[in-house]
Amino acid sequence: MRLKLIVQVSLITGIVLLFTSALFGYFNISSLKQAFLKSAVSDLDHLGETIFRAVFHQMLKNDRKAIQVTIGEVGAGKGIERIRILNREGVVAFSTRKSEIGTTIDKKKAPACMNCHDTGVVREKASPLVHSRMFLDSNGVKVLGMIRPIYNESKCWTGDCHAHSRTDRFLGLLDITISADPMLSMIRNYRNNTVVQIFFLILSISLCLTLLTKRLVIQPVHTLLEHTRAVGKGIWSFVHSVPGDELGELAEAFNDMTNKLKKNRDEMDEWAATLETRVEERTREIKEMQSVLVRTEKLASLGELVAGIAHELNNPLTGIMIHASLIADDSRLDEDLAEDCRTVLHEASRCSNIVRELLDFARISDSQKELQPISEAIGRTIALIEHNVDFKEIEIILEYEPDLPDIMMDASQIEQVLVNIMINSGQAMPHGGRLLIKIGVGDTQDHLYIRIEDSGCGISGENLEKLFDPFFSTKGHKGTGLGLSVSYGIIQSHSGEIKVESELGVGTVFTIILPLAGGDSNI
Ligand SMILES: Nc1ncnc2c1ncn2[C@@H]1O[C@H](COP(=O)(O)OP(=O)(O)O)[C@@H](O)[C@H]1O
Ligand SMILES: [Mg+2]
Predict the structure, then answer these.
(1) Low-confidence ranges of the chain (pLDDT < 70)
(2) pTM above 0.85?
(3) Which of 388, 424, 471, 477 to mutate to test the pocket of ligand 1 (most atoms within 8 A of CB)?
(4) Greatest Cα-to-Cα distance within the chain, rounded to the nearest angstrom
(5) Which of 121, 314, 375, 414 is least enclosed, having the fewest CB within 10 Å?
(6) 509 C-alpha to center of ligand 2: Å?
């Protein structure tokens, strides 16, 4: 069975206090008893001395009647039980109890004699304590007795009676017994008082300790326990802590722990809540990376093929165009045939355009890069396109931050990208519109962006996926479908990125991102 802390503290304190107090009381009362006994024996010794002095002259005169009277009078005093004088043979010569006068005490058997005669050798000049004894007298009363030897003195053998010879050591004994009751009742009273005092001491100390333990330990521990249980159930409660003692520190540590637990829990909850969107985001990123990879591979293999074909086609096409042009200009040709010939010339020049774009596409990797201002490249591009028929009804707005950093680039290639994108925008706004071009440095300060926004027809989600594929075009025989794939390759060779956002009927935004010199090229 497990006892509560407060019961344990009270029990252990009580037992320890009881034990130490009992020990203290025992030694205290014992030493008091000894002190009382010594004092009583000393009083008895003085009484013996007084009696002896009182009867000494009567003894010298051998006035036995007077001795008996003196003993009787002194013996009538309060608390004195008995006074008697024994001669050397142990015969009671005088006594306050007249009945025993003349009787003989056997010194080898009487308990009173044993203090001095127990070893066979008589203890002379011993302390009064040795000659004293406590015993129950014939009336059943506890008494304190003392035997005082009467030594032979010169006056005794020079006296008139000459009763004693000079060689005698002892002449007799004076035996006094007094009641031990006053002393014993005093000791009893003292013992009772001590017991009561110890009882109240133990009671008050135990009470104080119990109350203090309850207030200083049990209550704070209970509070902590309640809070711990609450935290276990997910209720984030905090303990009111008073710094100073160990329990205060414990409460502070508890609050600290609760705080950390709460933070971790919140993070976990948030993590769980956003896990789905994170997974979706990551999946989208992976898909994007995959499509970039596929597109790059496609471009690379296509580049090799295209370079070969374009090269081979270029010469015959030039021949066709020269001859078609010569025939078309011949005055001998009638007008119908001349018109057909011009159609051949037009289609051949379209083929030549395609071949040129294909060659551009194949030549992307051998670019000549150097640090140049982007604003100049933009300026040249706008100057080139604004005279184009497609841009008649279009408002071109250019916004850029002053002091833009220079970019490591092949200016003619970047211009080609800008032309491709802007021409597409122009073609997407056949009834006019607005082309907004913004240039700036990115938030992370490691790249530059060129944002080209038009208010054209927009691109469907389905087409957006195929936008950068070579030969993807929605313009029929008017488009080659190579502009954006060439642009994509160029920006990639500049370690940049090209992004597109579009909404059907609203417009399209192309964003080109180019790394700044010293920045991370892998944007
Ligand atoms: N700004 C734009 N607005 C709408 N559609 C666009 C835009 N830019 C490109 N496109 C679409 O992307 C296709 C591919 O463009 P591109 O590679 O330049 O080839 P082309 O212009 O020869 O068709 C275009 O046919 C067109 O459908
Ligand atoms: Mg185009």
Answers:
(1) 1-3, 112, 115, 118-126, 159-163, 242-243, 296, 299-300, 302-304, 361-366, 518-523
(2) no
(3) 424
(4) 209
(5) 121
(6) 15
**pLDDT score, position 474:** 94
- Ligand 1, atom nearest to 420 Cα: 18
Q: Which atom of ligand 1 is nearest to the CA of 486?
A: 17
**CB burial readout 430-451, b (16+ within 10 A) else e:** eeebebbbbbeeeeeeebbbbb
pLDDT of residue 378: 93
Count CB neighbours of 211 within 10 A. Answer: 11
Q: Alpha-carbon distance 507 to 492, whole Å? A: 25
Residue-range domains of the chain with CATH: 5-186 (3.30.450.20), 367-523 (3.30.565.10)
CA of 276 to the centre of ligand 1 (A): 35
Which amino acid type is present at position 140? Answer: G
Q: What is the pLDDT of residue 359?
A: 74
Query: Between 483-493 and 335-362, two packed helices, what is the crossing angle to 10 degrees?
Result: 20
DSSP 88-151: TTSBEEEESSGGGTT-B--TTT-HHHHHHHTTSS---S--TTTTEEEEE-TTS-EEEEEEEEEE
Two tokens, residue 352: 């030549």
- What is residue 37's three-state secondary structure? helix
Alpha-carbon span 486 to 489, nearest angstrom = 5
* CA 458 to ligand 2 centroid distance, Å: 14
Q: Which bound ligand lies closest to the C-alpha atom of 475?
A: 1
Q: CA triplet 269, 274, 278: central angle to 5 degrees?
A: 140
Residues with CB under 5 A from ligand 2 (ion): 424, 483
**Which residues are near ligand 1 (CB < 6 Å)?**
420, 424-425, 428, 454, 456-457, 459, 467, 472-475, 479-484, 508
Ligand with minimal distance to 474 CA: 1
